[in-house]
Design brief:
Layout (H helix, E strand, L loop, with lengths): L3 H19 L35 H9 L3
Length: 69
């Protein structure tokens, strides 16, 4: 399931389709104000991990954002 920023990206994709199909001009969700938090806000400090925290790279995040532009 997407996190806040992922849901914003999906919403923008839907808004693009709605605007195109209906000739409307709904504004995009400002995804810069949304959090890209792979832990969904859960405190993972007590969890054992085999490696680094499950973060995605800046390049991966940009690639995902560009899918909806």
């Amino acid at each position: 399931h997407p996190n806040q920023k992922g849901y914003g990206m999906i919403a923008n994709g839907f808004l693009d389709a709605i605007n195109t199909l209906t000739g409307s001009s709904y504004e995009h969700v400002n995804i810069d104000n949304l959090v890209w938090d792979p832990t969904y806000g859960e405190d993972i400090s007590g969890y054992a991990t085999a490696g680094p925290s499950p973060l995605i790279s800046k390049q991966a995040a940009e690639s995902l954002e560009n899918m909806f532009r």
